[in-house]
Amino acid sequence: MRVVMRRLAVFLLLGSLLIGGCADDERASPPSSPGPVPENHPIRWLPTGLIDLASSEGTFVRGISESYYVASEFLGAAGLFPGYKAATEERMPWGYSPRLGASLGLSAGYLWVGARPDVMQMEFGGPMRSIPPGWGAVVVCYLDMPGVKRGSVVKQFAYRKEGRPPPANQRGPRVRPERSVFGDWTIGAWTSTEDRRVCERIPGDVSRGFSASLGPDPGWPAAGAE
Predict the structure, then answer these.
(1) How do residues 201-221 score in pLDDT, each as one tens digit?
(2) Which of 23, 101, 143, 187 is the Cys-Cys partner for 88 at CB 3.0 to 4.6 Å?
(3) pTM here?
(4) How far, in Å, are 1, 50, 64, 160 from residue 122 at the CA level?
(5) d(CA 165, CA 162)
(6) What burial letters (b/e) apply to 16-34, b meaning 16+ CB within 10 Å?
(7) How many other β-carbons are positioned within 10 Å of the β-carbon of residue 215?
């Protein structure tokens, strides 16, 4: 009986040590890193005088461009702004899976309007044609890597300015709006340009770098669109 009791005591002791060791291992394990979040990828706009960023048109162009850039470079579809899919009738067959910017460890990005074309060509080819009355069109450029001396085209699009306009004067500390900022305006066409040099010249000072701590500019109001 004593032998049995001693064996039982040893068994219980070993069991408690194993459980304690597992608990210590769990406590020692570092927490899993959080997934990508929009706050890590603020957008800073460089003014060019081609569009008033505080106007309804500026809000629409910002919303489309920031959504597309952050989604395609970093966050996938989770980076799209509220209302983006309705405003674009989104049918991107390749989705937003590459996340090249995330794989390169990029953070903040600079965007600017490089051109306001009066003719357009569809993104996948076709004849040139004039921008229809009541539409707008832009070539949006970006820079997101230190040491790069030229910008690149992030997206080109033409849009219908019909119905309720987007809200104007959208500025604040947030990296994305809380609800749709597109009004009733919609994308008319994803377009292409033969002259990609419109984005080569960087129209402002980017010497502050690309840290997420810089925050967005002009950003979005905390209360969202009204």
Answers:
(1) 999 888 888 888 889 999 999
(2) 187
(3) 0.78
(4) 90, 22, 17, 15
(5) 7
(6) eeeeeeeeeeeeeeeeeee
(7) 15
